Amino acid sequence: MSQPVLLRQSETNLLRTIVVGAGEAGLALARDLHRVSSFGLDPVGFLDDDTTKQGRRFGGRRVFGTLADLELVLERNRVDVVVVAIPSMPPHEVKRLGLRAAAQGVTVLHLPPFLAALQRQIAGTDMRALQVGPLIGRPELHVVSRGAAEAISGKRVLVTGAGGSIGSELCRQVSGFGPAELIMLDHDESNLHRTQLDLWGEALLDTESTVVADIRDAERIHQLFRDHRPQVVFHAAALKHLPVLERHPCEGVKSNVRGTENLVEAALAHDVERFVLISTDKAANPASVLGATKRLAELVLDIHHGSGTVLTAVRFGNVLGSRGSLLHVVRDQLASGSEVTVTHPDVNRFFMTIEEAVGLVLEAARMSDGSATYVLDMGEPVRIVDLVRNFANLLNVREVTFRYTGLRPGEKLTEELFGVDEEALPTDHPRISMTRPQRAVPGFRAGLRELYDAASHNRPDEVFRHLRRLVPEYNPAPGLVSAVTAGAPYPDDF
């Protein structure tokens, strides 16, 4: 095996990048990345299986070894990103390489097939769309540490919502850490099919670890935990589209609150070691049903604190690149030449990438030793109109016309990361903060039972009333639902 060479320390804040493939595509890509800093990548060298290229320099960058040297090069040189620049590399080999890199906490990007690259004319065009630093005003954070593998390796891991954007990325990264078993749960078999195909290059849906189930079905969830005995649970399944839940609050309670409690109770009954809930920044001082139900899910974890299971929540900002996310909508509007619809000229949000989000989840699983909520430092919130203009510039669209539609019920002008009574506390990761949960209101358990009853009988007025009682900081839009009143307290059973 060739000897990996220690790379020089980059003098920039760009992500240190190894290009796989020192052919024409790789050399052109390295030149593009070096010339255009907005890509966010610093190409420091190559890997290539051609033995005649070993040790040679191309554009001042050496070929440091072959693909067999991947782990050693990444480990010794603090590499952040691997870019596969071999257009002819078979998809299954790209996936295998991605799993090896993910086990080192390194992101893998892949150039499109050769014909697609020709149609796009230059490789850099594709890379530009993948780098979000110019859009959100900060570099993408390399969150996950190699220590995160210790929480996963050799464990039986369950991921709910495995067919969704966050769930599928969790499955991809978890699989790279060598779990004893990866159990992928979703209520939609089409989503599971897509995730399985992405992970293994085939999707027969005939394995024991691919599970179709609904988290609302408590008996089915307990059966699943009895059969598979998961040790680590990542709970990503949820209803998350804000306007939909404003119109259908009962469904939000059934999935986001009752579904979470079904999973937590099963986890406690079957000795799960760690349980991580995917929450949202909308749970901080919520103004929407989505935020209120996610805040309740966090509180469900808190009332079960003290068991043998470590219960942790993670709050995300808006995730760029997720299915149905802002960039997908804006891209289609810009491509068609139509107006870009924005609710308000000053509306702003915290943004993160899928890789940052999943890195935060894995770090939370590593760090937590008790009930806590973790939040990534996402910098300053970004105005939506500024993000759209930056995105348009990257796509070479010079003129953007906006149409302002007005804030919808439940939407804030600015999101928050911590509630009014929550304190941001440091962790051993410089870009991750945590907060200890505030105590639930008196009579919380009785209130949950009444909330579940109202939701199961599809009585939205009662659901809104119970949400307001159980989450006192919940402040829906005035006049949204006349039944949203403080009401009488619950019996004190807490």
From TrEMBL:
Stored InterPro entries: NAD(P)-bd_dom_sf, Polysac_CapD-like, Polysaccharide_Synthase-Rel
Residue stretches making up the Polysaccharide biosynthesis protein CapD-like domain: 157-435
Entry-linked Gene3D superfamilies: NAD(P)-binding Rossmann-like Domain
Top-level taxon in the UniProt lineage: Bacteria
Homology family: Belongs to the polysaccharide synthase family.
Name of the protein in its database record: Polysaccharide biosynthesis protein CapD-like domain-containing protein
Organism of derivation: Kribbella alba
